[in-house]
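Input record (one chain):
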Amino acid sequence: MSKGKLLAVCLVWLVLLGVGAACWKLLFVPARNAVEEQAQKELVEQEEQQRQAKLKGAGSQSRYKNQIDFHLDSFSGYAIVRSDAFSQELAKRGIRLNLQDDGADYAARIRALQSGDAQLAVFTIDALVKASAELNDMPATIVALVDETTGADAIVAYKSKVPNIDALNNADTRFVLTPSSPSETLARVVMSRFELNSLAENPFIEANDAAAVFDRYKQAKPNESLAYVLWQPYVSQVLKNSQMHVVVDSSRFPSTIVDVIVANRDFVLKNHDVVKDFVECYLRAVYRYRDRPEMVKLVIQDAKQTGSPLTAEQANQLAEGIWWKNTQENLAHMGLLPGKSLPHVEDVIANLIDVLQQTGAIDADPTQGNPNYLYYARLFDELRSFHPGDQPEKVRDVRMPALNDSQWEQLEEVGTARVSALVFARGTDRLTERSRRVLDELANSLKTTRFYVKIRGNASRRGDLEQNKQLAERRAKAAEAYLTAQGVDKNRMHAVGGEPSGTTSVTFVLGQLPY
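The corresponding structure, as predicted from the sequence alone:
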């Protein structure tokens, strides 16, 4: 054989050996490794089964039949969820509760519900709507109301720069706040309810948390057009400065910043009785802490456990600003106690969707016009006759007391309601169809505000001045009568005829009694 042929044969064999080695490495070795890994896995599983069998054989049957992963954050309004009383009630029903603090990361919370990693969680209703819109899915449904803030959140500012809400209507105004928090919600509600059309397109300065907002306040100058949106105990700390004041707080917007317990939809459908037991146990714990001193003690204990200790004074201030919802109030919000004054949860959801859309927080309604898809009333329908304790619970009243003429004169005007101009037929007090639609929207808005309303009529300056004054008053009274017919409490409204200025519209000024 010639040297050339020998070289060619060698090359062929080298190629074949190379191909064989590659096949061995790519095919046989992984297959062998996979077999070995599977055998090792089976061995580990067998050893674990044997270990578990030994543990079980020398142990006892677990007292817990069900386990719930519950996602939340350190907000003091959730103190009852973290309480011993609640855990003890759950244990009686064979439920173990695993609390997962996600640091108020609502996007992560909604994804945990979507994936089933969380079976239950807490949200503010607005955060639930916003998170659902961003996810383009509604994996959770409301099963109970926890609380609403009634003053724990507030917008504070220098008195000289921002004496009232109308003073916020400035292109330079900025709200310093924590995004995706109740403070952002409060700012958006104010923007949607008052005539603040001069605000910048994005008037927010974002800070990581309330402590960061407070630090920004400490660096501020009195002449800056800044409003700080905070919650207790930071609100009280800011007010130690006599130059600062509360422009408006959450007590003025009932059923707006509302915390709720939500359940994964699949979980509640498959485990209805477990979720019902959970809600019932929670309501028993609410009853346990119904008295203020007991709640203050719990808040102090809870704040210490979550790493944000409070003084007794701070805990009391916080407890004053939170309204924990009892069984009867949950029933009323679910529409199961006719005649009670609390708004239906469906209307609360619809109102917040409207606020978020008006202020650009969401592009589209995640419920597609069906806010009823976001709550599950069946649980409370089955709890109509449930009583958590011996003493009866009451639905606390939210109606505003009537004012006498002297009090109306003393009313402190805080801002002008956001409302389109009313149109009257020339020289009459007759409302047009368009004006009735405007007043329908205003009625819905007023039901979620806790202010008194001065309704000021107006008229042309032409002609008889006295007759024009009377026409202005009749127009104000026509608007008042229509709003009353739409369910706005007449005690909150006071119709007056202003000095004719040439316009034919009516203005609505919101006010409060001086502190």
